[in-house]
Design a protein that fits this description.
Elements lengths: L1 H68 L3 E4 L3 E3 L4 E6 L2 E5 L2 E13 L2 E17 L4 E5 L2 E8 L4 E16 L5 E14 L7 E12 L4 E14 L12 H7 L3 E11 L2 E11 L5 E10 L4 H5 L9 H13 L4 E9 L2 E4 L2 E5 L5
Antiparallel strand pairs: 1-4, 2-3, 3-5, 4-5, 5-6, 6-7, 6-8, 7-9, 8-9, 9-10, 10-11, 11-12, 12-13, 13-14, 14-15, 15-16, 16-17, 17-18
């Protein structure tokens, strides 16, 4: 009987241990497969990142060649590619670009894109930025932060967004030095949704102070416009403004433009043509609210002793009556602006 129980006990132990051994073998194979898959994913991602970082270096080298072919120079000091595993990042200290239009240099610049979304590029520049415009003044800018975001397509840029905070701009080399500061500024550029040949633009600024002109009350502004035929400027082989104006009927459609300073606001909307020489042509209706503040707002923009601000303000008050609001036509022609029959002076061309 004891022998019989011993056989039963042995059979029970064998049956109890065999499945656990098989389960252990299966679990071991699962971990092995998991390890192999992990190794393949990590290795494949590392290879992808290495290839992507190589592409960034190629883009930079090709950019240098393109700028050099146009008689300019692109310099990325202390160039470094980093960001593994989820970013591609190119750091330059400093970044300098020279073209036929002048040169610009930033103390440092960083271009980033997510490895899984390389069509979205973000550029962060460090102050100060300085430069010179061809046949024009030099400039320098200081700021707390600035950011540029670009979403790229197959043939060009689809969206372009930029923002700056606590910006101070100085122009040098002028007869009268110019300095302005802005608390915050934004600009957004898109290919138009209704017509992909057009370009949409929206911009805003707040806390604008023009110290040189003695404007100490902050100015707020915003504009929304469409540049007819302007989408070509977003292509990777973009023409210049002058080439574009010479090849198409370039028009600026102002959907809304408004400037506010204290109780005074000036707004307009309408269409201006851009002539091949960069000058504007057309008439816009200007709506002024707070007419009593108009003379004081115009004074800084005219030479000392000029009677134009007072004359414009009197005419506006006469036409507006007691409403404190008036709409007047401003005409752009031959490089000058005229409000009703008052010559406001020259207007800088678009290019």
């Amino acid at each position: 009987m004891r022998k019989h129980y011993g056989l039963i006990e042995a059979n029970y132990l064998m049956s109890a241990t065999q499945p656990s051994e098989q389960t252990g073998k299966r679990a071991g194979r699962k971990y092995l497969y998991l390890g192999l898959v992990t190794a393949l994913v990590v290795g494949g991602w590392s290879l992808y990142w290495d290839l992507g970082s190589g592409v960034i270096n190629d883009i930079y080298r090709n950019g240098k060649k393109v700028v050099a072919a146009q008689g300019g120079e692109l310099v990325c000091g202390q160039q470094e590619v980093s960001g593994y595993p989820f970013q591609f990042r190119l750091d330059c200290q400093p970044l300098r670009v020279e073209t036929a239009l002048g040169w610009v240099e930033a103390a440092a610049a960083k271009a980033m894109t997510l490895a899984y979304n390389p069509q979205h590029v973000i550029v962060d520049m460090k102050a100060p930025i300085s430069g010179v415009v061809q046949n024009g003044p030099g400039y320098s800018a200081d700021f707390a932060s600035t950011l540029l975001s670009a979403r790229l397509g197959t043939s060009g840029i689809n969206n372009l967004d930029g923002e700056a905070k606590e910006l101070t701009l100085s122009l040098v080399g002028l007869a009268t030095p110019f300095q302005a500061s802005v608390k915050a500024a934004e600009v957004h550029i898109r290919r138009a949704t209704q017509d992909d040949q057009d370009m949409q633009l929206a911009a805003s600024l707040s806390g604008l102070l023009l110290e040189t002109l003695g404007i100490e009350q902050p100015v707020e502004g915003k504009v929304r416009a469409v540049l007819k035929g302007g989408a070509a400027l977003l292509s990777y082989q973009a023409p210049s403004f002058s080439q574009l104006a010479g090849s198409t009927d370039l028009q600026i459609v102002l959907e809304n433009a408004k400037v506010i300073q204290g109780e005074l606001s000036v707004s307009t909307k309408g269409t201006l043509k851009v002539r091949p020489n960069g000058q504007y042509e057309g008439t816009l209706p200007i709506t002024v609210k707070g007419v009593d503040q108009l003379e004081a707002a115009l004074l800084p923009f005219f030479p000392e002793g000029s009677q134009v601000p007072a004359s414009v303000a009197r005419s506006a008050k006469g036409l507006g009556g007691d409403k404190g609001e008036v709409t007047l036509p401003i005409t752009f022609s031959d490089g000058r602006a005229r409000l009703v029959f008052f010559d406001l002076g020259p207007v800088p061309p678009l290019f």
